[in-house]
Amino acid sequence: MFENLTDRLEKSFKLIKGQGKITEINISETMKDVRKALLDADVSYKIAKSFCDEVKQKALGQDVLKAVRPEQMIVKIVHDELAALMGSEHSEINIKGHPGIVLVSGLQGSGKTTFCGKLALNCKSKRSQRVLLVAGDVYRPAAIDQLKVLADQIEVPVYTEEGVKDPVAIARRGIDFAKKEGYSLVIIDTAGRLAVDEQMMDEIAAIKKAVNPTETLFVVDAMTGQDAVETAKAFNDRLDFDGVVLTKMDGDTRGGAALSIKAVVGKPIKFISSGEKLEALDIFYPARIADRILGMGDVVSFVEKAQEQFDEEEARKLHKKLAHDQFTITDFYQQIQQIKKMGNIKDLASMIPGMGKMLKDVDIDNSSFKSIEAIIQSMTVQERDNPTIINGSRRKRIAAGSGTSIEEVNRLLKQFEQTRKMMKTVAGGPAAKLMKKKRR
User: Fold this and answer.
1) Residue 276 confidence (pLDDT)
2) I want to staple 2 with a disulfide (CB 3.0 to 4.6 A). Which of 138, 255, 286, 373 is the partner?
3) Are the C-beta atoms of residues 350 and 298 closer than 8 Å to each other?
4) Exposed/middle/buried for 143, CB within 10 Å: 0-12, 13-18, 19+?
5) Which residues contact 229 (CB under 8 A, 6 or more apart)?
6) What parts of the chain have a pLDDT lower than 70?
7) What CATH fold (topology level) applies to the domain 299-439?
8) Within a 10 A sphere around the Cβ of 230, how many other Cβ atoms?
């Protein structure tokens, strides 16, 4: 997410690096390059121009402190303006009520049903809600089955009415059922629809009127870029939803939708979703996203994810090992098991300042874990504890035992060394300090 934009902005800021002060000439040159970077990220010309004009105006009116270099001041202003563009503060979902009712809308294929499962898990595990899912997509083949499969995974019930083709009636009776059975939250999945389809838009409007939801969310595929923004606007004009959910953020997305939706539609992004795992749902924090875009990482989110998975006693032991440079391949293997639960490793790396770049060309992703695990399991205890003894003949044996090649074994050993250095840096860095502070 935002990787290309991050690289482009870093190059833009270099234009002013080494300058003694901010001038009309050097800020204009820098902002021209920033505008190109935003346009390449699929931000509309109007928003990109307005953004750059605002940054330029604030930069020229800024009293630059002697202790702060011009490029540092520009980065700070750009950061604040990016956060403001995306909404400044994060916006909470309204799930209060007896029960709270969330109506989920969007285009076909945007990931609505999967999002319903993710939101149900999030509200059940983190907000202690008793959740009921309502299957309101009566048109797409297997939509109800898909929702049931997701619901089974997270042990949440689904209200369905086999053979009924009236989603308004299903939604209304689903709410009645929830009240009767004492559910605290109802999440209603609906069919995908186009904004130009009057009949389908009338239907979603009728569902909203019938159930009077506490929260109406619009789910959109982030990979559609500016089209996502225009679609959101068309839906909002008709539905007046409360917030946006950006899905498929792990795809080849340039980030334009995230940067533009709030400015164009006037409604906040509330969640971002990536991958098929039901745990892969994050609250949208504008300032944290601005941090990531500018290569500053997102230590707070990293710590929050880590705290959900890591045992405190194990974390203390690991910290002690890292401090004494005793991190072994066995520890590496255990960390892989924990990281697999946290999400995509490249996304996690981008949350730690500087780590995204360090791992940018390192070929570690979730799909490569199987071969890594097989290689480690083919090592002896002595080899895991002291990888420096793994010579040519040992590498050959490990490769044969794991069904991999010697090149893959060599790559893993190199990756282990890089990860060991990274973990040592993290252990003494801001994430560790913040983790310690949060435990207190």
Assistant:
1) 78
2) 255
3) yes
4) buried
5) 44, 256, 257, 260, 261, 264, 265
6) 1, 20, 61-68, 251-254, 297-319, 322-325, 339, 341-368, 423-440
7) 434 Repressor (Amino-terminal Domain) (1.10.260)
8) 16
For residue 417 the two structure tokens come to: 């060394």
* Cβ(86)–Cβ(285) below 8 Å: no
What CA–CA distance (Å, rounded) separates 184 from 285?
Answer: 26
Cα–Cα distances (Å) from 380 to 270, 386, 412, in that order, read 48, 10, 15
134 token code pair? 């309502």
Q: How far apart are CA 348 and CA 299, in angstroms?
A: 10
Q: Does domain 3-85 have CATH number 1.20.120.140?
A: yes
pTM of the prediction? 0.71
Residue ranges covered by each domain of the chain: 3-85, 100-290, 299-439
What CATH number matches the domain at 100-290, 3.40.390.10, 3.40.50.300, 3.30.360.10, 3.40.1260.10? 3.40.50.300
| Separation of alpha carbons 163 and 181, rounded Å | 23
Quote the crossing angle between the two packed helices 369-377 and 329-342, to the nearest 10°: 150
Length of the chain: 440
The residue type found at 76 is K
Using DSSP's 3-state secondary structure scheme, residue 353 falls into coil
Residue 223 is given by DSSP the state: G
